[in-house]
Specification:
mainly beta, 13 strands, 6-stranded antiparallel β-sheet, 5-stranded antiparallel β-sheet, 183 residues
C-alpha cells in the first residue's frame, strides 16, 4: 500500500493498495496503520466505521460537519462511485479547491478527507457500497449540507441524479451553508 498526496486538497491522500489477484478473485489490505502513520495521521484516531449501499445515479452530499469537523477515510468496497471533496478550511492553501475521483471495488483505493472538507459522491454502477472510517462519533446537530449543484462549485456530476435525501435536495448554496455553519 502506498499513500499519494491529492494536490487540489491540502492534507488529503489516496491510499492505494496492492491487490493480490488469482483465479479465486483478489485479496488486499484496505487499511495499514504504518502507511497512515507515515503521512502524519494517527491511525488510532478513527472511532467509527459505517457503510452505505446505493443504486446507480444516487447522489449523497455534499456533507460537512460544523465545529471541529470530522476526518474520514472513504472507500468504495463494491461497485464504482464518483467521489468529490471540497476544501472549506479558511486557512488552507487549497481553500475552496475541488477534487474528484472514481473509487471502485476493483481498486479498493481509500481516500483520506481532512476535517473541514465537504464530501459527496454519486453511484456509477447498478449498486455500490461505500465504507467510511470517521474520527469522531456522529452528532446530527453538527450536520451541514451544501447544494450538490451549487454554481460556484460547478461539480461535473457524471449522471442524472436518480435519487437523493430530502435534506440533500433542499440543501442551501455553499455561501448560505457556510454562514449557517459559523452560527
Amino acid at each position: 500500500m502506498k499513500a499519494i498526496e491529492v494536490p487540489e486538497i491540502d492534507g488529503a491522500y489516496l491510499f492505494v493498495p496492492t491487490p493480490h489477484v488469482d483465479e479465486r478473485g483478489f485479496f488486499c489490505r484496505t487499511f495499514d496503520a504504518d502507511v497512515v502513520r507515515s503521512v502524519g495521521l494517527d491511525p488510532g484516531a478513527f472511532l467509527q466505521d459505517s457503510v452505505s449501499r446505493s443504486v446507480r445515479g444516487v447522489l449523497r452530499g455534499l456533507h460537512l460537519r460544523a465545529g471541529g469537523g470530522e476526518a474520514k477515510l472513504v472507500r468504495c468496497s463494491h461497485g464504482r462511485i464518483f467521489d468529490v471533496v471540497v476544501d472549506l478550511r479558511p486557512d488552507s492553501p487549497t481553500h475552496r479547491g475541488v477534487a474528484s475521483f472514481e473509487l471502485s471495488g476493483e481498486t479498493q483505493v481509500t481516500l483520506y478527507i481532512p476535517a473541514g472538507c465537504a464530501h459527496g459522491f454519486q453511484v456509477l454502477t447498478e449498486t455500490a457500497d461505500t465504507s467510511y472510517r470517521i474520527d469522531r462519533p456522529h452528532d446530527p446537530a453538527e450536520d451541514v449540507t451544501i447544494a450538490f449543484d451549487d454554481p460556484e462549485l460547478a461539480i461535473p456530476w457524471p449522471l442524472p441524479v436518480t435519487s437523493m435525501s430530502q435534506r440533500d435536495r433542499e440543501a442551501p448554496t455553499l455561501d448560505e451553508a457556510l454562514k449557517r455553519k459559523e452560527r
